[in-house]
Amino acid sequence: MTTVTKAPGEAAAERPGGGRRAKEGGKGPSDGTVLNVFSHGFLAVWAILIVLPLIWLALGSFKTDSQIGGSALSWPSHWHFDAFSRAWDKGIGDYFAHTLIVLVFSVPLTMLLGSMAAYVLARYPFPGNRVVYYFFVSGAMFPVFLALVPLFFMVKRLDMLNTYQGLILVYVAYSMPFTVFFMHSFFRTLPTAVHEAAVIDGASDTRIFFQVMLPMAKPGLISVGIFNVLGQWNQYILPSVLMQPQSGSDPERYMLTQGLIQLQYQMGYETDLPVLFAGVTIAMIPMLVVYLSFQRQIQAGLTSATLK
Amino acid sequence: MSHVARGTGRGGFITGFLILPLALYLTFVIWPYIQTFGYSFTNWSGQSPTFQFVGLDNYAALMKDEVFRGALWHNLLLLVFVPVITILLALFFAFMVNAGGRSGAGGVRGVRGSGLYKIVYFFPQVLSLAILAVLFGAVYRSDAGGLLNGFLTKLGVVDPAHPVEWLNEPNLVLWCLLMVVVWHGVGFYLVLFSAAMQSVPRDIYEAALLDGAGRAQTFFKVTLPLLWDSVQTAAVYLGIAAMDMFVLVSTMTSGQFGGGPDHHSEVMATVLMRNFLYFGKSGYACAMGVVMLVLTMILSIVTLRATRRERIEF
């Protein structure tokens, strides 16, 4: 097992070997080489520490429960995918669908409402503008916990506990501070000349927003969009309080994160850990695919979102 | 500005664009926050619609609550160690990635494959905390089936008959959780610091090199001061994460909403949730929420003040 799981780290560590013949610079060649080997060593160790547990977990989905409990370093004896289908039947498929249903509505709605508010606050001076802006932005400072107790009863009063629309609205509301903050600073950097030209052409304010300003804000929308997709996809606390079945007849509408934790409790009792590992692997695969396809945008989006 | 002159009908447009976002935000965010303050002065149970005003009783009880005080202490420990360890590791790796390569004719450069390292290191950031909880629950398993015990047994460090119960050992559990946060965060801050390092103009490094500065000197005298803004941001974000910890503690440790063994991994968030959802002491839970808010605000202000340096423009 170790030979396979080490591969990514080794691949990275072997690279300098190929370049060893490369000409050294004029200044302190020995110093550079020592540091180079040294830094590759440390970097490779951390890379292994990241990759190894993930691959180990994925391999666990092919083992039997007794193998998992017996020795961590055992190698799967058969390569059946039945743990994956059992995990899917245990609800992973449904949890995926629930999360998708929520995000399909909550993310576009967050972006739309957040941009609308940010745009008005960034480009239209009116009395109280600053107050409303700080009002929005200050929400980013508070921990969600602070609002949790009354939020639960607020959603209950609206009869929206364990409903998609309830969670969608809550997600949108809690994504507002950051979205408004980020898009506000983005709209401020856009040139005014285009806007003025559109005004002269007789376009209405609403039309200017949707047909001129919003397309121009695309890079900002992508950054904050990635941030919101990841944040809402990975959210655990809000659904774990708001998405519990309210009665016996109320169907389960767990989000993926909730479902995984649920599965963990369940599989602990049923001693079927391969199912749990398969469930986590299933949950990780789309993230891995999306991440590898968009890693540049994701890294840039998340870090620029933090630095704003 | 031309659009100010157009005046008529603009009020309608502004209201139209603001009304929905504001309404949602007020209903689900601001109003619950305000209510929390109100409820924190009552003995509200959450179930019954009636409750009495009890003044500062909840806060007085909080001060005497051993579990909560222990949780507060754990949060403070995490508050110090999570940012320090994560930022140091991230800075170290960022420096290795960007300046650890051999020095060539063009001065110091990054290692080969730095892009690959960044891709690998950053990946944990896109995983949910729920996935991390299951993953590290398995890594820290208390028998030979756990990855950590399995390895240490193989190396002969751990006696196979007595594997370490990582998450059940009072003195270890908090540090095990801390390592999960560090594992999760280092890659993100590495990328953040790398971006900042790359935005430093090359000629500053070349000038330092010409003046005879070594790598260590370059790092401490040139790179670090120029990165200070990002380090500050990182400290605030990591501090806020250290104040939270709910997902990891509640799912990885023993007890109702976690915190075990015997409250050794308790954090404020888990005490709050237990009081709210399990003991039905909503008013008391609200008082904890208020304390957490005040601490988070103090933390942000102190971090920003304490790390304030003269801003260097480049």
UniProtKB/TrEMBL annotation, chain A:
Residues 1-28 are annotated as: Disordered. Keywords: Cell membrane, Membrane, Transmembrane, Transmembrane helix, Transport. It is found in: Cell membrane. Residues 96-294 form the ABC transmembrane type-1 domain. Its main location: membrane. Residues 1-15 have a biased composition (Low complexity). The chain crosses the membrane at residues 37-59, 95-121, 133-155, 167-187, 273-294. InterPro entries: MetI-like, MetI-like_sf. It comes from the Bacteria. CDD domains: TM_PBP2. It is a multi-pass membrane protein. Belongs to the binding-protein-dependent transport system permease family. PANTHER family: ABC TRANSPORTER PERMEASE PROTEIN MG189-RELATED, ABC TRANSPORTER PERMEASE PROTEIN MG189-RELATED-RELATED. This is Sugar ABC transporter permease. It comes from Streptomyces cirratus. The lineage of its organism: Bacteria, Bacillati, Actinomycetota, Actinomycetes, Kitasatosporales.
TrEMBL record, chain B:
Residues 72-303 form the ABC transmembrane type-1 domain. The keyword Membrane applies. It is found in: Cell membrane. Keywords: Cell membrane, Membrane, Transmembrane, Transmembrane helix, Transport. The chain crosses the membrane at residues 12-34, 72-98, 119-140, 172-192, 234-253, 282-304. Its main location: membrane. It is a multi-pass membrane protein. The keyword RNA-binding does not apply. Belongs to the binding-protein-dependent transport system permease family. This is Sugar ABC transporter permease. It comes from Streptomyces cirratus.
